[in-house]
Every structure is written in C-alpha cells, then in structure tokens.
Specification:
Length: about 260
C-alpha cells in the first residue's frame, strides 16, 4: 500500500517540469524515506537525481519499497489538470498496476480523479560516489538561469572558472565572446542575490550550455542553486527545497578536443 498527500501540489508539478525533457521513462522508487528518481538523460550525458522527502507529505504511507514505472510526458499531462494550489494525493493499490491521482481544490469544492497506467521499466540504479569538490559556489538560481540564457546566444559551451576573486562564465563563438563575472558577496541586503564561494583550489571547466540551460528549469523550486566542481569530475548542480524536494543534476565536463 502506498499513499502520499502533498498539500503544495505545485511542488510536484515543478519537479516534473525540471526533469521531463531530460528523461522520458523512469522509475519513481517509493520507500519509507520518500520518493526518489535517478536516471540518465536519453543521450547518456547527464544524470538527474530527485528526492521528494517523506516529511513533505502528510500523510505518507509506504509499507514496502515500490517502483512506479512512469512515462513522464503522460504524468505531466495529468498534472497539468491540477491547479497550483491544489492538494495532490498519490495512491497505488496492492496490484501496483496503476497510479491514482486525486486533486482537491483549496476550498474542497472541486475534486479531480485520474489514473495513470504504470510501466515495467528495467532500470539499473547508478551509484553516485561521494566526491570532495574543489569549489562550491552558491548563487541566485534566477541569475544562473539568466547567465545560461544570455551566453547560449554566443556559444554552445561555457567555461566556468572559480577563484577566490569570483566565478567567471565565459563563452566563445563565431559571433564573438561573452564574459560574466560574479564576485563573492554575503550582504544581508542582497538576500537570495548573494554569491558565496568555498574554495580548496581554483577550477576551470567547460560544459554544454544546452544541458545547463535545461537544468535551470528547476529554478522555480529554490531561490538558490549550488554548483560543485572538481577537476576531471562531473559538475553537480543542486536545487534544494529544504522541506520537501531535492533535485540534483550531474554533467561531465567537455574535453578540449571536443570543441
């Protein structure tokens, strides 16, 4: 038996928006700790990891581990039928063939009931090794989204270099070059616009802007985004909605010869 009720239905909608273009079909693994998803994108370049924490639901009942094989495009179509303020309840009976979704409006005057056929998806669970990062940058998720959007007009890739002076995003293309530098600032006045850098050693790596731009679809989940970098190691892009959701993306750096 699995049942989970989410009073902020918009959280589930935002999480799905954040991953549906990278992954087509995936297992949502339901356990005592919450609902998790881990999958490579269709090109096997990026890895996405999602956790919807059990504490974010009320109630949350899961008496055994259940994989819910879902086509994310189909689930997204159903979730579009829910209002952002609706409460969303997810249920799977003991047969485990369908996912039942109940949408309730805030004043309980509208109820929507939907069923989604579940799929049998054979998916290996990829172990993500614990990594010591050389640089950890925390910045406004809106700022990161804007940087990726602006530089996408110049090049297909961006080099991100981090020193104690700041973080620089540089794009070089046929039309010219673009450089955006953010200096560390912890001013209380800046709030979510502040930039913090934890640095063990300077890093300079190049990544695909197409993928980074796709990752920024998770921006509505959190005011802040964390970028974790180390030489010859995939970039970790993390959006943490403390109470209920955690979305992480991993992207391998480009090798210079690929340029």
């Amino acid at each position: 038996m699995f049942e989970a009720r989410l009073s902020q239905g918009s959280v589930l909608k935002k999480v799905l928006e954040a991953v549906k273009e990278l992954v087509t079909d995936a297992n949502f693994d339901c356990s005592e700790t919450g609902i998790s998803l881990q999958a490579m994108d269709n090109s096997h370049v990026a890895l996405v990891s999602v956790l919807l924490k059990a504490d974010g639901f009320d109630p949350y009942t899961c008496d055994r581990n259940i994989p819910l094989g879902v086509n994310l495009g189909s689930l997204n179509k159903i979730l579009k039928c829910a209002g952002n303020e609706d409460t969303i309840t997810l249920k799977v009976d003991d047969t485990g063939d369908t996912l039942n979704l109940l949408f309730e409006s805030q004043n309980n005057d509208r109820f929507g009931e939907y069923e989604l056929k579940l799929m049998d998806i054979d998916q290996e669970h990829l172990g993500i090794p614990e990594t010591e990062y050389d640089a950890i940058v925390v910045l406004s998720s809106g700022e990161f989204q804007r940087i990726c959007r602006d530089l996408s007009g110049i090049s297909e890739s961006v080099s991100i270099s981090v020193t104690k002076e700041g973080v620089r995003f540089q794009a070089k293309g046929e039309v010219g070059t673009g450089n955006i530098t953010l200096r560390p600032s912890s001013s209380v006045d800046k709030g979510s616009e502040s930039v913090s850098i934890k640095l063990t050693s300077p890093v300079d790596l190049t990544f695909s802007l197409k993928y980074l731009s796709n990752f920024t679809k998770a921006a509505p989940l959190s005011d802040k985004v964390t970028l974790c970098m180390a030489t010859n190691t995939p970039l970790l892009v993390e959006y943490n909605m403390e109470e209920c959701a955690l979305v992480r993306y991993y992207l391998a750096p480009k090798i210079e010869d690929e340029e």
